[in-house]
Amino acid sequence: MSAPLRLLVALAAGLNFGFGLSLSGMLDPARVQGFLDVTGAFDRRQAWDPTLAFVLGGAVSVAGPGYALARRLPRPALTVAFELPTNRRIDRPLIGGAALFGIGWGLSGLCPGPAVAALSTGALPVVVFVAAMLVGMAVYQRFVART
After folding, report:
1. How far apart are CA 139 and CA 10, in angstroms?
2. Biggest CA pair distance of the chain
3. How far apart are CA 147 and CA 143, in angstroms?
4. CB-based contacts of 30: which residues, under 8 Å, 6+ apart?
5. DSSP code of 143?
6. Of 72, 127, 133, 143, which is least packed with CB atoms within 10 Å of its CB?
7. What are phi and psi of 134, to 5 degrees?
8. How sure is the predictor about 139, in pLDDT bands with cuts at 50, 70 and 90?
9. 118 and 110 in contact (C-beta within 8 Å)?
10. How many CB atoms within 10 Å of residue 126?
11. Nearest CA to 31 among 110, 117, 113?
12. pLDDT tens digits, 20-63
């Protein structure tokens, strides 16, 4: 398939993802932190917010069947092969990365996808988060991925 068509489909999927995040309120870091703070230790004025659980449930209900379908198809529609994960090993870098991701998500209320979508709000903390994320990615590529 043509590269412009693949880019157009990727753009449509990204816009759909961003719209869904915006519609569900997941661009608001306080809402995400309200879900992660199940004990109320972070903000006692706010009750636990289960919204993110419903958003995640909706995402899994769409992605699960899609993933199962992808495993049965001979090839994807717009490229030559599926790029599915093959590594099943749980190692120190995976655990460390997951812990670092979780800590960052809990402290900021942002993770990479919603942070990029939240750039549309123009909020300075989001801009700082995305800039720091890009610097972190560059540092990783420069110093860690090469070893």
Report:
1. 27
2. 53
3. 7
4. 46, 109
5. I
6. 72
7. -65, -40
8. very high
9. yes
10. 22
11. 110
12. 999 999 999 988 888 888 887 777 777 888 999 999 999 999 99
Residue 19, amino acid: F
d(CA 26, CA 112): 12
Q: How far apart are CA 58 and CA 114, in angstroms?
A: 16
Q: Which of 98, 66, 70, 65 is nearest to 84 (CA)?
A: 70
Distance CA 5, CA 78 (A): 8
Token pair for 77 = 């529609």
Alpha helices in the chain (DSSP H): 3-24, 29-36, 51-72, 92-108, 112-118, 124-139
Structure tokens given for 8? 């157009």
Amino acid present at 16: N
Q: What is the pTM of this model?
A: 0.77
